[in-house]
Amino acid sequence: MSTIHFISGLPRSGSTLLAALLRQNPRFEAGMSGPLAGLFGALLGEMSARNEYSVFIDDAKRERILRGLFDSFYTDCDAEVVFDTNRGWCGWMPAVSRLFPSAKIIACVRELPWVVDSIERLVQRNVFTPSSIFGFNPGGTVYTRANAIVAQDGMIGAPYDMLKQACFGAERDRLLVVQYETLTTDPAFTMRAIYDFIGQPMFEHDFAHVDYDVTDFDERAGTPGLHTVHGEVRAKPRETILPPDLFNRFINDAFWRDPGAVPAGLRVI
After folding, report:
1. Distance (Å, rounded) from C-alpha 23 to C-alpha 18?
2. Which one of 10, 194, 221, 259 has the lowest number of neighbouring Cβ atoms within 10 Å?
3. What is the DSSP track for 6-56?
4. Band of the pLDDT at 222, cuts 50, 70, 90?
5. Where are the alpha helices (DSSP H) in 35-111?
């Protein structure tokens, strides 16, 4: 199959914007978060000892089956380089390293208060459309919603723990942490760093006209605008809609911004 890399990290941190930029390159295929990581985990589970026939499946077979999943999913893709996006890939780095020794993972991150703010802003914008993020529950407050998404199994909490595992893990040399703030304020620098990281020749991207729209998916999820990217790549300063005590609760969680907390060998831009 094509050369494969992965986009992972935190939600509302620029992964769709990054995919929209990468797909401008006719040699590349990239998009919003997809189903492969979920299928990957399901297959691993079904090949474990909980299946009475797992005695017939050794690690070599597991590797072939899992690699075959990628081959089958992208069999009709003509791109030379594929970027598969899912927040779960940071949690699968040891397995990804075994399956694809040359694959790299780009982890999109953003200061956590603004991730929570971004999700809450979507909820309040779509006030008549309960979101799948909260089980289509129309009730709750900004506090109950924030507590749900930052829980260890929540939309933010789970990817955050996976991100930390990847950043401090043995495979961190194949990880590039891309800050949302860098991507939106200096997209040219960010893309040069990514091309250098994956060892691909540079492409002239159009940062003034970026377009990616999966309206049908977002509306089905009850969260219109969740993956929509239009117009120019630029930072858009704004005031938070979170109460101050809630905003300040997460203000020190961006460990990647502290040089003393970043482990040796981890690249952060």
Report:
1. 9
2. 259
3. EEEE-TTSSHHHHHHHHTTSTTEE--S--SHHHHHHHHHHHTSTTSGGGGG
4. low
5. 36-46, 59-73, 93-99
List, in sequence order, every residue forming a beta bridge with 175; answer none if it has no partner: 105
Residue-wise pLDDT tens digits, 126-176: 888 888 888 888 889 999 999 999 999 999 999 999 999 999 999 999 999
Question: Taking the CA of residue 66 as centre, how many other CA atoms within 13 Å lie in the half-sphere pointing to its CB?
Answer: 24
Question: Which among 226, 229, 179, 228 is positioned nearest to 206, based on CA atoms?
Answer: 229
Q: 7 and 106 in contact (C-beta within 8 Å)? A: yes
pLDDT of residue 215: 52
Which among 82, 76, 156 has a CA at the least distance from the CA of 112? 156
Among left, alpha and beta (phi > 0; psi -120 to 50; other), residue 30 is beta
What's the pTM? 0.90
